Amino acid sequence: MTKLIECLSLGAAVAALWLSLLLERPFRLNDAVKFHVWFAPVYAVLAFGFASFAVIVYRVITFNECTHAYHELKQQIVDAKRELKALGFDAESDAEKQPT
């Protein structure tokens, strides 16, 4: 089962449950509960937004700096410039000629 089918199945089940509560099919609801049933989709969107925000903040806070990869990439750039210069291509002077 793909993720798309899982998400669509879950969404259909939640929508069916919400609609059955909204139409008061299994049992009657008092006004206070019916108010919250009407706004359940808004609550769900807000909860999804807060959860997404929390995941993004957590991932930003725990992001690794990868200093080894930074130094390795800098060395590869220096090596590439040296190889290109040996072939007759000057990267610094050509970069100044291009408009930004």
Walkthrough of the structure:
The protein has 100 residues and is an all-alpha fold. It has 2 domains: 3-61, no CATH class; 67-97, no CATH class. It is built from 5 helices and no strands. The model has no long low-confidence stretch (mean pLDDT 87). Stabilizer subunit of the dolichol-phosphate mannose (DPM) synthase complex; tethers catalytic subunit to the ER.
Features:
100 residues; mainly alpha; 77% helix; 0% strand; rod-shaped
Q: Which regions have little confidence, pLDDT < 50, spanning 5+ residues?
A: none
Query: How are helices and strands ordered from N to C?
Result: HHHHH
Q: Roughly what is the average pLDDT, rounded to an integer?
A: 87
> Biggest sheet, in brief?
none
Class by alpha and beta content: mainly alpha
Number-wise, the strands total: 0
Number of helices: 5
Give the domain tally. 2
Question: Alpha-carbon distance between the termini?
Answer: 49 Å
Query: Tell me, what's the shape?
Result: rod-shaped
Helix content: over 70%
Rg on CA atoms, Å: 28 Å
**Residue fraction in strands:** under 5%
Can you lay out the helices and strands and say which pair or pack?
Blueprint: H1 3-22, H2 31-38, H3 40-61, H4 67-86, H5 91-97
Quick rundown:
The chain has 100 residues and is mainly alpha-helical. 77% of the residues lie in helices and 0% in strands.
